[in-house]
Amino acid sequence: MEAIEKANALAVERILTSDPVLIDVMPARDVVPGLKDGMILHAGPPIEWDRMCGPMKGAITGIAVYEGWASDLADAEAKAAAGDFEFHPNHHFDCVGPMTGMTTVSQPMLVVENRTFGNRAYCAINEGLGKVMRFGGNDAEVLDRLRWLRDDFGPALGGAIRHNGGLELKNIIARGLTMGDEMHQRNVACSGLTLRALAPAMAETATDNAVLAKALAFIAGNDQFFLNIAMAMGKSMTDAARGIDGSSIVTSMSRNGTDFGVRVSGTGDQWFVAPVEMPEGLYFPGYSEADANPDMGDSAIVETIGLGGFAMGASPAVAGFVGAGSASDAGNFTRAMGEITAAESPEWTIPAMDYLGVPTGIDIRLVVDTGLAPTINTGIAHRKPGIGQVGAGVVKAPMECFTQALAAFADRMGVS
Amino acid sequence: MAHVLNEVRRGFYLDSVALMRMSRAIAGMDGVEEAALMMGTPANHEIMADARLLADAGKTAGGGDLLIGIRATSQPVAEAALAEATALLDAPATRGDGAAYRPKSLRAAVGMLPGANLALISVPGDFAVAEARKAIRRGLNAMIFSDNVDIEAEAALKAEARELGRLVMGPDCGTAIIAGTPLAFANVVPRGSIGMIGASGTGLQEVTCLVAQHGGGISHAIGVGGRDLKAEVGGISTLMAIEALAADPGTDSIVLIAKPPAGDVAKAVLEALEIGGKPAVICFMGAAEMELPENVRQCFSLKNTAFAALGEKPTTPAPPSMQASDSEEILGLFAGGTLCAEAQVILRDAGQTVRSNAPVTGISTQDGDGHLMLDLGDDDYTRGRPHPMIDPTVRNDAFIDALARTDLAAILCDVVIGYGAHGDPAGHLVALVSAHGTDTSPVLITSVCGTDGDPQGRAGQIAKLEEAGIHVAPSNADAAKWALAAIGAG
User: Fold this and answer.
1) Which of A278-287, B17-26, B264-273 shows the highest mean pLDDT?
2) Is B415 exposed, middle or buried (0-12, 13-18, 19+ CB in 10 A)?
3) In a domain, B283, yes or no
């Protein structure tokens, strides 16, 4: 018991003392260790082609065409089914990706370094709203945008970041929380703060005014631009807490559209997997629950560090997504998550909750004991590939992941 | 054919989540095929066009304008939906109830109330010990309302609590008053210098109420659970409670109410009272006379216990005149277990043959001859149903049957009020009696366990009962005596 508390204190300390800094944008081939041609990294725990959901398959065929590994989508699908590509979770390569979470060699990756512990984590650039690959979009428009991100935007952004000597993320989050962001469904403030921090350097380092103008407009036009930065940040923080013997703190929560996977510090890299649940939420005009794909994406990494659904109290408007909840009840989501976490962040606080720190460090023992599953704020993809986002809402992590994890943890600790 | 209607509000911004919620409400109206309220950004124009919600009127909306789009089966429906959307936009913001967060776990509760030193645990029995362990390990004393906890687990829990210096009240602890705060089934009594310990709920209630009715007050009333004085548990909580009250400067004397303890446990308890040194009164319901330390007195009824604690001679009111009966049988129908036991003792000590489903020493079980004293709060009657103190309807059948019997001289029963009890148990009883009609029924004798400070109000309850021709004795013991008088044995 005491050993667990000590191990958990260490895990939480590692998360809380992390110093994540966005240091660069680089092609995945050059920075992601072990990533090779023919490899496609995806969101969530491991999964084979046959069991993948529609949007995941759509994204995979699209990314294969983009990488030049297939002549067209049909060819890509045949090759995927024939086993021509290697599928791995992002999480196995220090990466994360929202929704389908495609990561391949030629994509430009946001590089976040955890300066306290020296480890790095990677995430592709957010493509914007509407029809995009992360929701399974794969037509020419989607692929052209990815090429522009690779050829123009990525280098421009990376140059500006390097010019500034990196972008320290902890204080951006702290300020974003005071401005109504929870960094999962709502990144309006942090996207704006990032643009403010980087725009001068982008202008300074620009060689082509047209590229600069388009790049600035791209960030300015995407309220969720910061999400992918927050995710790489979350990954860099939780990776620092991995592999601590005796710790029951969650280090990954992630979904591939079919399965939900949880990893725990004290149980190594084992995934505890259960079927994903359907999000509850609000839909764009013309769409309904019937169109919705089950829960998907590595983005729940932000809940793992106390943001997203855990920081709902900072973002009352987002509380509306759960339906009956009134804005003034948003704090209760945060308080409920406080029942399953080991600590409160001393730096990331919520003004409207008397500067309560966001609940950090999900303890699987508390999840099982209280029966309170982590609340995750999420976008909702169309169940068919190629259509894109149809809504947004809230989803619960399946309790079964945590009961499995606790059994394995107890086993490892020699408790029956 | 679908009718598409647009309206644009210039320079009107609302958050997209709020707009999506309104959209859902409008789209759910009868005859509305689709509806959306969105800011008129280019991306939203596209979405609305794809959803066939955009008419010419809407195309002028800019990014700072709110665009309402409705597609409906008819023009009137579309117009009604548009009016509703407009009404929603203009409605005052709904307010949350601002309700304080209700924690789901002990850990969170302690976080919200760091000064707490007592946890009241009421969960299914299988989980009660685990929750109580969490409480004592967090430095809290625990009152366990839950029952169905096995006795080995109770003993182990109490042993651990003793190590930690924490008191466990229960399991199956229905009544306590700690520093003036009533917990679970308890009555509103003034604070005073009499400290009480009870292994039974209604026993504590009756004695605290009698003390209060006669001008006394209570420092603390500590419940310990019905099995604390059994050999398996060894009286751990009772002994700790005695020690605590002996050390408490606000307590001048100690009252202990329980079933007769196991021999060794009784010895330990008397020793502890002797060491504590404060004047003490014990009532081991149904026990024979015991050898006692000098500072300890033994009483044999709850009523005498209360008077002994007050240092007063018990008053015994003369029984009222009651209709004569050919019958000599009394039937007891009790909600309170210890009140049932007290009635048995009084009838037994008057030389009557008594039987009961919850017999005290020297009383036979339900079969055979004699006055039947039924504890209707016993597990056999309450399995899967509420306790009769909470829901008196569970006594209905027994009362209806009894009222119709011509071979009964008297029905003896209790009316228990206070926190946790039914809102108007007297009214309920009166309704049963009136429904039956008063002519042929046996005499009804009762008492009201409670105080005028209780939410139900004792005086009002008594008035209701008396108005219906029910005899209300000042105490449960007096009621039993009156029942004896009713059969000419008083």
Assistant:
1) B264-273
2) buried
3) yes
Residue with tokens 């109000």: B457
Share of residues in chain B with pLDDT > 70 (%): 98
Q: Examine the domain organization and report whether B398 and B286 are in the same domain.
A: no
Do B450 and B343 fall into the same domain?
Answer: yes
Both tokens of B133, joined, read: 């362990």
Give the model's confidence band at B439: pLDDT under 50 very low, under 70 low, under 90 confident, else very high.
low
Query: Using the beta-carbon criterion (under 8 Å), do A284 and B36 form an inter-chain contact?
Result: yes
Higher-pLDDT residue of A12 and B90 is A12
pLDDT higher than threshold 70 for residue B96? no
Residues B187 and B215 in one domain: yes
Cross-strand bridge partners of residue A20: A114
Nearest one of B455, B459, B467, B457 to B429, comparing CA atoms: B467
| Candidate from A286, A326, A328 with C-beta closest to B51 | A286
Q: Phi and psi of A23, rounded to 5°?
A: -105, -15
Inside any domain, residue A254: yes
Residue spans of chain A under pLDDT 50:
324
Q: Is residue A112 included in any domain, yes or no?
A: no
- Output the pLDDT for position B18: 77
Distance from C-alpha of A102 to C-alpha of A96, rounded to nearest angstrom: 9
Domain match, B334 and B434 both: yes
Mark whether B343 and B467 lie in a shared domain.
Answer: yes
pLDDT mean across residues, chain B: 92
B247 CB-near residues (< 8 Å, 6+ apart): none
Provide the residue range defining the domain that includes A247.
242-412
**What percentage of chain B has pLDDT greater than the value 90?**
73
Cβ–Cβ below 8 Å for B105 and A339: yes
Question: Alpha helix (H) ranges present in A240-371?
Answer: 301-304, 316-319, 330-338, 364-370
The number of distinct structural domains making up chain A is: 1
**Residue in B24, B47, B96 closest to A327 by CB:** B96
* Nearest-by-Cβ selection for A282 from B20, B46, B107: B20
Question: Domain for residue A77, yes or no?
Answer: no
How many structural domains is chain B composed of?
Answer: 3
pLDDT at B271 over 80: yes
B7-17 pLDDT tens trace:
999 888 877 77
Residue A292 located in a structural domain: yes
Answer whether residue B232 is part of any domain: yes
Q: How many Å lie between the alpha carbon of A85 and the closest alpha carbon of chain B?
A: 35
Region B373-380: mean pLDDT is: 88
- Output the CA torsion B366→B489→B404→B472 (10° steps): -100
Q: Where are the alpha helices (DSSP H) in B284-424?
A: 302-310, 337-349, 379-382, 396-404
Paired with A21 in beta bridges are A113, A168
Q: How many CB atoms lie within 10 A of CB A228?
A: 25
Note which residues in 92-111 of chain A have CB less than 8 A from chain B: none
List the CATH number of the domain containing B334: 3.40.50.261
Residue in chain A lying closest to B108 (CA): A339
Look-up: residue for tokens 């307590």? B251
Please give the pLDDT value at position A324: 44
Are A184 and A378 contacting, i.e. CB atoms less than 8 angstroms apart? Answer: yes
pLDDT for B99 equals: 60
Q: Which token pair is B100?
A: 């304080």
A328 touches chain B (CB under 8 A): yes
According to the model, what pLDDT value does residue B206 have? Answer: 98
CA distance B66 to B49: 15
Q: Grade residue B91 by pLDDT with cuts at 50, 70 and 90.
A: confident
Distance CA B77, CA B57 (A): 18
- How much is the pLDDT for B95? 55
CATH number for the domain that contains residue A365: 3.90.1700.10
By C-alpha distance, the chain B residue nearest A315 is: B17
Q: Cβ–Cβ of A339/B47 closer than 8 Å?
A: no
Residue A2: predicted pLDDT: 87
**What is the residue range of B379's domain?**
330-486
